[in-house]
Specification:
- With 188 residues, the protein is mainly α.
- The protein folds into 2 domains: 39 residues, no CATH class; 133 residues, no CATH class.
- Helix content is 73%, strand content 0%.
């Protein structure tokens, strides 16, 4: 097993640096600060291609639909069936993940990669995310802190959205984006 960083992940630090830099520049300009002329060490965000914008927009729309499924199922389990909060969260998360994976694999990333392997990668992501989010959900909504369940659910969904997009884009479907389109074009 190699300790080498995969090529698709090499630009991730640059992407994050450019994203943060863009935010700081925007905030600075909003506050009336002059823009400094600096050398751009990373050119990741210099050219927004139509493909990347389309990928992002599709992911956002499908994530919204998955969010609706998660909120509706969570509300039914929490309010109608009166289940424990963490059980309601866990079941609604699983339903949302299955929906989101299916739509994003088929329509956003157009991936013809091995479905079981891609599902295992997503399962690996959720093997880390689910226990952490279930834990912080239980802590934040518990009697000691007492945050509103829906506020915690919304914040958790935002964290899930951002981290899942990065994971899907660079790890799960990084090398197989648009392979379903290419395979259908060669068969026609």
């Amino acid at each position: 097993m190699s300790n080498r960083i995969p090529d698709r992940l090499k630009n991730l630090p640059g992407l994050l640096i450019c994203f943060l830099r863009t935010i700081f520049i925007s905030v600075g300009e909003t506050c009336g600060l002059p823009r400094a002329n600096t050398v751009r060490p990373y050119r990741v965000l210099d050219d927004f291609s139509d493909k990347n914008i389309t990928l992002s927009l599709k992911f956002v729309l499908f994530s919204i639909s998955a969010g609706v499924i998660q909120i509706v199922s969570f509300t039914l389990l929490e309010e109608v069936l009166c289940l424990e909060h963490w059980i309601s969260y866990l079941v609604s998360l699983v339903l949302s993940v299955l929906w989101n994976f299916t739509l994003n694999r088929t329509y956003t990333f157009c991936s013809a990669s091995n479905v079981p392997v891609a599902m295992l990668k997503v399962a690996g992501f959720y093997l880390v995310f689910t226990p952490l989010s279930t834990w912080w959900t239980a802590v934040l909504t518990g009697t000691e802190i007492g945050w509103n369940e829906y506020l915690v659910l919304a914040l958790t969904m935002i964290v899930n959205f951002v981290t899942e997009y990065l994971f899907d884009r660079f790890v799960v479907f990084g090398n197989s984006i648009d392979t379903a389109k290419k395979n259908s074009d060669t068969q026609a």
